[in-house]
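dumping this here before i forget
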Amino acid sequence: MAEALTLVLNVGSSSLKAAVFATSGLQLWHGQMRRNEQGPEPLERALTQWLAPALTPWWSQIQRVGHRLVHGGERFTAPTRIGAAVLEELKALNPLAPLHNPPALAAIQWLQQQRPALEQWACFDTAFHATLRPAAYSYALPAAWRQGGCRRYGFHGLSHQHLAEAAARHWQALGHSGQPRLISCHLGAGCSLAAIATGCSVDTSMGFTPLEGLVMASRSGSVDPGLLLHLQRRGLSLDALEQGLNHNSGLLGLSGLSGDWLELRTAAEQGHGGAQLALDVFRHRLLAGIGAMAASLGGVEMIGLTGGIGAADGTLLADLQQALSWLGPVLWLQIATEEERMIARLLARVAGDQRAQQFSDPAGRGSGAAGDSAADDRR
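structure:
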C-alpha cells in the first residue's frame, strides 16, 4: 500500500507556500510563490496553474491537507476537520483577519472542488495562545465590549509552538529535565513575543489583531489609543487610519526609506538618520517587550529567536545578549520558522501516527549567554 502523505498549504495575503510530508516526517517537496495580484480569481489561477501541476507526483498519495488559518477566534483552539458547518463558522471570522483568513478559505474551497474526497484540516495561529489566562487576555474595557469578543488572542502561534518544541528538545539534550521558561521572539515582517512555561503560552505581545506589540516592517505596533482618537477627530478616515497603521508605519514609517531589515542595516551604517531611528526604536521596544515577558514568567532560562530577522541576524543576537545580561544565565537559540512542518506535526498527532514524534526540525543552533549563535536561514 502506498504511503499516506500530508499536504500543507500556507496561504498568506500575498504569498502561497506549500509542502508535502511523508509519515516519517520527511519533507518530500516544498514550494512558494509571491502573488502580486490580490483577490479570489488571481489566487485560483495560482492554485490551478502553479500548485496543481507541482503536486502531480504526489496527488495519488495525499490523504489529508492542513491549512494555516491566522485567526480562529474563541471557538477554534485545536486542529479542526473542515466540513460544511465548520467552513461557515470560519467565514464568520473573516472580519477579524481580513487580509489572511479569506485567501486561506479560498484555497480550502478550491480543493473541495478539485478533490472533494480529500480530508482537510485547519490549524490556527491563535490556538497556541488559548492557554492564556483571563489576566493576560482581558482588556480593561466595558463588560459588553468584552462579551462581544474584544480580547487579546495572540498570533504567530504556529511559529511560537515550533520554536517551543525545538527549545524543549535542545534543553533536554543538554541534560535538563522538563521544559525551560522560554521567551519566543518571532521577528520578521511581523513581530511578536510569547512567554512560554511548560510548553504553554502564558503571555504574548499581539492582541485582538496583529497590530499590537512590537514595531514591525510596516505595522506600527502598540500606539496610545488616544492618539488614534485624536487623528479621527482631525478628520482622518477609518480607511486612511487602517492603511497608515498597517502599511505605512513601523520600520518603513520611522525610516522614511524601507521596511526591509537588511536595507535599513546598510543604510544605518552609511549614516542614514531615519534608518538609525528605525533600528533604535525597534531595539528599544524589543528589549522592553522581552523584559515584560520575563516578568510574566518569573524568570527565564532560554530565549529563542525565529522569523526572517530573528533566525538570521547574528549582530542582533549579540546585541540582545549584551543588553539583557542582567537576566542572568540564559541559553539562546536561533532557529528558522517552519510553520508548514508544525502543521504537519499537529495533524500527525491528531491522526495518532506512531511516528509523529519524528516530525522534528533541523536542530537550531544554541549558545550560552555569552556565546555565539549562527542563523539557520532567512525566512
